[in-house]
Write a structure and sequence with these properties.
Length: about 400
């Protein structure tokens, strides 16, 4: 039963190759992307990619905490995969923090216009938001939020590892996990909105949406479910995670399917209210996306993130097919990466219409390679199954549906 993870060669090679591509893209971008458009493109891609992968890691912690609070067993068979994703919060938080602070130190006000004194002097709408949108509060909230996420992730991981060495049948670690999961959920409920307002929504400083926090949450949740699915299937195909079967895969498919509908509901509710109100100050956020150079990507984003999972994952058999879930997970992952792209680039470069080119692909592959490497390394540090978890047996005999 004590199955240990051995990093497959293709995991290691893919991770190294992607990281090398990412570093090369960063260096070439640093030297080649000049001028107004080039500099904006360079920093925008770094900002949204670092935040995208940070939010994925935090969403893994949310999945872990929510399942623990529900005292669920469906995730126990691949619980260590979820842990291996969430323990990377400190790494991605550090990367995002360095990039965000570089933006401030370098006075890149094209990312956050509210940092420009000239903008504040001539735009009363942005100036009116300075009690919240100011550099000091931004830095304080960023440090508190990233530190809180990181500490809670490491605490829950430590409890899980301690449980492996406990006596058989012990439940004190289960209750510790439930307690700290509740602490995280309460903290996350506030910080997911505050962080998304500061880090992403404030890029379009004159615009605001009361649904933005929910929107970022929905996108990051679906993204992490695709990442979990891809890791579980890849590890399963390498001859490991032998306890995982189609019943567990079915659950992952249901989450991708259900929350894709939830994301679409949030997307529609947010977009429709601005379209129906037809107020220039509010509708300007969508103008470059729907009527400008980003129209194709905007429509593709909706098709990928709603139509693909809704139509292709609707049936029971599709959710239990490893190949089908893998393909859809890859497509949906790209779709929500594209969604984060559209949260930033159309605002920073509304008229230039930068397409997805070598720099965007290279930086993204670098982050993907880093995640593969970090998750693989974390998986080697503990047994693939939480040996003394009270619900392990229930997870082994788990059935996703009953006929």
């Amino acid at each position: 039963m004590e199955e240990r993870f051995v990093i497959p060669r293709r995991f290691r090679n893919t991770s190294i190759a992607f990281i090398a591509i990412g570093v090369l893209a960063f260096l070439v971008g640093l030297l080649a992307l000049h001028g107004d458009v080039g500099v904006k493109r360079f920093w925008s891609v770094l900002v949204f990619n670092s935040l995208f992968f940070l939010y994925i890691s935090v969403a893994a912690l949310f999945v872990y905490a929510a399942a623990s609070l529900a005292q669920a067993s469906w995730h126990i068979a691949y619980k260590r995969v979820i842990e291996a994703i969430m323990v990377n919060i400190p790494v991605f938080a550090l990367i995002a923090f360095i990039i965000l602070m570089s933006v401030f130190i370098g006075h890149k006000s094209f990312i956050y216009p509210w940092t420009d004194p000239q903008v504040l002097a001539h735009d009363p709408i942005i100036a009116g938001k300075t009690p919240f949108l100011n550099t000091r509060l931004f830095v304080i909230f960023t440090v508190v939020i990233m530190t809180g996420w990181s500490l809670l992730a490491m605490k829950l991981r430590r409890i899980s590892l301690q449980e492996d060495h406990a006596e058989r049948g012990a439940t004190r670690f289960l209750w510790k996990t439930i307690f700290f999961s509740a602490v995280f959920i309460a903290f996350y409920a506030v910080t997911i909105s505050v962080s998304s307002w500061h880090w992403l929504m404030s890029i379009a400083a004159r615009w605001k949406s009361t649904m933005y926090g929910w929107y970022v949450f929905a996108g990051s949740f679906i993204s992490v479910m695709t990442v979990i699915s891809l890791f579980v299937i890849a590890i399963k195909n390498s001859g490991q995670l032998t306890l995982v079967n189609k019943e567990h895969l079915h659950d992952l498919g249901k989450f991708i399917f259900a929350f894709s509908i939830f994301w679409t509901y949030i997307w529609f509710a947010q977009y429709f209210l601005f379209w129906y109100g037809n107020i220039p100050l509010e509708s300007q956020y969508f103008r470059p996306q729907l009527w400008g150079h980003y129209r194709f990507w905007f429509l593709l984003d909706l098709v990928i993130n709603f139509a693909v999972p809704f139509l292709l994952l609707m049936t029971r058999d599709a959710k239990r097919n490893y190949t089908t879930v893998t393909i859809i997970a890859l497509i949906v992952f790209f779709g929500h990466w594209l969604d984060f792209y559209l949260m930033v680039l159309p605002t920073v470069l509304p008229t230039q219409g930068v397409v997805l080119g070598w720099y965007e692909i290279g930086i993204t592959l670098g982050f993907v390679g880093l995640m593969i490497g970090l998750v693989s390394r974390a998986l080697t540090r503990a047994p693939l199954y939480p040996l003394n978890h009270p619900y392990l047996k229930e997870a082994i005999i788990h059935k996703s549906d009953w006929e």
